[in-house]
Write a structure and sequence with these properties.
Blueprint lengths: L5 E8 L10 E5 L6 E5 L5 E7 L2 E6 L8 E3 L8 E6 L5 E10 L1 E8 L17 E4 L7 E4 L6 E6 L6 E5 L16 E3 L6 E7 L1 E8 L10 E7 L5 E8 L5 E6 L2 E6 L5 E5 L7 E6 L2
Parallel strand pairs: 1-8, 9-15, 16-22
Antiparallel strand pairs: 1-4, 2-3, 2-5, 5-7, 6-8, 9-12, 10-11, 10-13, 13-14, 16-19, 17-18, 17-20, 20-21
Length: about 280
Amino acid sequence: YSATAGHVAVTVTDRLGQPAALHAVRVEGPGSPPVRFITTNAEGCAFFAFLPPGSYTVSLGTNSPTTYIDQASGGPNPIKTVTVAAGGATAAALFAYDRQATLRVDPEPPLGAESTTAMAPPDMAYTLANTDLPSGTKIFAGNGEPREFTGLFPYPSGYGVWAGKCPAANPTLNGATGLQTFAAEPGEVTAGTLTTALVRLRVVDALGAPRSGRPATATMDVGDGCVETLALGSSNALGEIVVAMPYGPWQFRAGGPPENAVLTTASPLPVEIQVLSP
């Protein structure tokens, strides 16, 4: 006990809530020295005793800045601020901290589709969902396929994943009974196939003749504030573009008037869509 000082108690747990030992905890604030380090013990605890009153920053990650991830901040070097009061009071800082998980997904139409090798648009985004995420979902920009998602907290329940960044692309709103779930294991890579819709876009002129070399796009905009536009590539010699697509309502265009289609899990494989190109 001290009438003029207080304490900081830091607790670090893994993804299961179990104590996480041997993590370096950094505390910075008033007094001398201004920076103090203690490594968590077998109970995942680090205790900084008899600190001058004031504001302190508590941080992790100095011993493993790239391989661990914090649940709350989503980063490898979490920082929290606590206030130390005189009179022997103890300020607490809690961290859920574990080795980051990686997911690698390959978007493909379902088995039995006419073309299971159709490529997805390289700019197609992906949504990862877990109820413990701060907003419930996390969106990753498109970057070709297979798409790899790094820096994930390894939630024991894994992640539900869908193609597309908008809520309207959620498969459960388009005929699916649930999301595809991928495991998230600490320090490991989980790979799998992500089911998508399949579209054959036929680009034609005003007389119905095929147009080759015509770029096409697809846009999702249902008025909820989320808009996604995908570059589908250019039509081949037959005037066709065959592409793996997110589910949901889309507007297809190849320089002429748009064509609307809602892609669901019950849609034909492929969905045939014809668009006019001047």
